[in-house]
Amino acid sequence: MVTLSSLRKTKLTPAGSRSPLVARYGMSSSNLVNMIFAVTCAWVLTGFGPPKLVLANLSWLTFGTSVAGQTSKISRPEVETPSQPATSEREDTSAIHSLVFNRQFARISLIKQVAACVISVFSPSGAAGGSGVIISPDGFALTNFHVAKPCGIAMKCGLPDGQIYDAITVGWDPVGDIALIKLLGRTDFPYAQWGDSDSVAVGDEVLVMGNPFMLATDLQPTVSWGIISALRRYQHPAGTLLEYADCLQTDASINPGNSGGPMFDLSGRLIGINGRASFDRRGRVNVGLAYAVPVNQIRNFLAHLRAGRIVDHASAGFRVASDPQGRPVVVDILETSDAWRRGIRVDDEIISVAGRPILGPNDFKNVLANFPPGWRIPFVFRRGQEVRQVFVRLEPLHSPGELLEQLEKLPLESPPGEEPQPEKPAPTPPPQLPVDHLPPEAQAVYEAKRGFANFYFNRLAQQRLWSAWAEKQGLSQANGEWQLEGRWDSREPFTATLGARLARLSVAGQTVECSADKPPGPAELAPPDLRGPLVGLWLVWQLATQSLQALADLSYWGAEPHRAQGPMAEVLQATSGPAECRWLIHEGLLIAVELHYERFQDPLELVFEDFRSVDSAGKGVLFPHRILILHGDNLLARLEVTSFAVNNRANSESP
Q1: What are the helix and strand counts (H, E) for the chain?
Q2: Cα–Cα distance measured from residue 57 to residue 4, given in angstroms and rounded to the nearest whole number
Q3: Beta pairing, strands 193-194 & 269-277
Q4: Does 177 participate in catalysis according to the annotation?
Q5: Residue 505 and residue 169: Cα distance in Å, rounded?
Q6: At a CB cut-off of 8 Å and minimum separation 6, what does 105 contact?
Q7: What is the residue-averaged pLDDT of the chain?
Q8: How many whole angstroms separate alpha carbon 546 and alpha carbon 549?
Q9: How do residues 505-551 score in pLDDT, each as one tens digit?
């Protein structure tokens, strides 16, 4: 056998002379050229690795070479053949065989390792199902919305170890076709490690696993291997749901039943959730074009899903189209949108969004698909010769109640690759168990509420976040009236008193009050009225001293970056009089309060900084000694708190 080491030892000789290669192997220079060309082609086409490895994998072949119209074979001549190969050649051959074996062993080991967290999903009746992957040891798992929805509130999930577990619906993302479910009965499930879908490149090898055609009756997932064939693909939705945007395209076999299953990289990290393939009008046969939702997109929504929410996606408040020169320009914009308030207008050219260049409408849709509404992200646009950057708060894609109406019209099962048609009658749903007939474990972790997939998990998130804040900041110990003193914009003194029934703020001789019996209206909360900042301070007191149940329509929202460039903050939101209020908490500290007093206006924001211990208020109490009052991009005031005291009179009626 001709090894790479023997070729390296062969010296070129002048034309007409007898080369050592000819003498030893009976091969001419032309033979050598043709052989090298054949090996090189095999190396490129197979992608098997280094030349040594290619030669090892192809050692069973005999390369035919054509010289002067005659065909000869490369073979070791019978004469002058050593009885045993040289020691270095034996070592090279052994190393090649070792490389082949090691790669095969690594592939098998990887499949065995990641298969442990792959689940087969079945409805209780067995009439629906698909695939999924566990992402935490306590049993949270990702699948597709179009897999989970037909299964109902509860479902059955099988692991490759042969065990079947009850599972419960947690959260839905019907726009991005993602669902979060939770397997019950264990706290030590095998789970996948997160990858980075933004670091994936075209040509990267991937591993796809799942339950195609519901074949995994033994709960062993089907495995297919392929490459990333394209990035950031866009697949049109059904109406406004099941939109596959910014997704990973692969030639790995994905068929009906693979939906919801994992896509792994070669390190065994989760990089996508499989969900759709391009085989409509092709007899539902895989043709090597399939799509996975990237995990970096999913992770932006994960806190919302864990909170039992039905998640919406974002809109910028305007549409983009290509102008005659091919530039992406704004063609329509809502004057009630935050983008309008930040200065974006029709005919502005969109250059980038969230740091990604925008070359056309699909790029624009791909970027927006990665974010929930309420996030603020940077937009760079050009008007004439001027380039500007603004931070836009994203709008919901659907108006209140519209998302729920769309869900009711959507067919229950949407096979990947076939765009569901909302105007067609929905198929008869598979039988679903009523709540009172759910398995006992499932009944204990389910609470119905309109607008939520499972409000039980929202209550858990509320309590977890509030408890972390109470422990870190300690304001729940300051149970009574609060007395604040300090300076307003470093000039005027101010005092604030916050109690159960009344709140009062005095600045430079001007005093305003708010009563729990008669909350201020939207016009009274708008700047420059002082009642807006007073209500913002009062909201801090309410969160600290009242029970969560006392806050009207309280819910856990999810997580978002504070003011676009700040830290990730978890959000509680509730109703306060005519306004919607939001508390933003980061690592146990309340860093901001937002007061949304009118739907189409910038909220009033109080940002809290410079946290210090307040000994007179009790043990371990932290209070912010700097408060910024913001409205949109404008800083209205800066408060320096010099004194914080608590009057512990129970049930105080007035300051």
Answers
A1: 14, 34
A2: 13
A3: parallel
A4: yes
A5: 46
A6: none
A7: 83
A8: 8
A9: 999 889 999 998 888 889 999 999 999 999 999 999 999 998 888 88
Determine contact, residues 277/326, Cβ cutoff 8 Å. Answer: no
DSSP state for residue 297 in the 8-state scheme: H
Q: And the tokens for 644?
A: 């914080």
Per-residue pLDDT tens digits for 308-326: 999 999 999 999 999 999 9
Residue 451 confidence (pLDDT) above 60: yes
Instruction: With CA atoms as reference, report the closest residue to 362 among 203, 244, 220, 498.
Output: 244
Residue at token pair 């002048």: 14
Predicted confidence (pLDDT) at residue 436 exceeds the cutoff of 80: no
The first and second tokens of residue 384, run together, are 């004439």
**Amino acid occupying residue 100:** V
Judge whether 146 counts as a catalytic residue.
yes
105: left (phi over 0), alpha (psi -120 to 50) or beta: alpha
The Cβ of residue 201 has, within 10 Å, a number of other Cβ atoms equal to: 8
- Judge whether 271 and 200 are in contact, CB under 8 Å: yes
Nearest by Cα to 413 from 242, 214, 236? 242
| Strand ranges for 96-235 from DSSP E | 118-122, 129-134, 140-143, 154-158, 164-173, 178-183, 193-194, 205-210, 222-235
Q: Which of 197, 259, 337, 555 does the annotation list as catalytic?
A: 259
Amino acid residing at 617? A
> What's the Rg (C-alpha) of the chain?
32
Tokens for 521, please give them. Answer: 């209206």
Identify whether 313 is a catalytic site residue. no
| Amino acid sitting at position 97 | H
pTM of the model: 0.81
Q: Are strands 244-250 and 290-294 parallel, antiparallel or unpaired?
A: antiparallel
Q: For residue 71, what are the CA distances in angstroms to 78, 588, 606?
A: 19, 79, 85
Q: Report d(CA 313, CA 297) in Å as an integer.
A: 11
CB 623 within 8 A of CB 644: yes
Residue 639 vs residues 509, 528, 585, 634: alpha-carbon distances, Å = 16, 15, 20, 15
Catalytic residue, candidates 120, 146, 166, 251: 146
Both tokens assigned to 126: 């067995």
Catalytic residue among 173, 177, 348, 363: 177
Query: Which residue's entry shows tokens 């307040």?
Result: 614
Torsion of CA 393, 395, 401, 402, to 10 degrees: -170
Is residue 16 packed enough to be buried (19+ CB in 10 Å), middle (13-18) or exposed (0-12)? exposed
Nearest Cα to Cα of residue 640 among 536, 484, 535: 484
**C-beta separation of 64 from 71 below 8 A:** yes
- H-helix or E-strand spanning residue 615: none
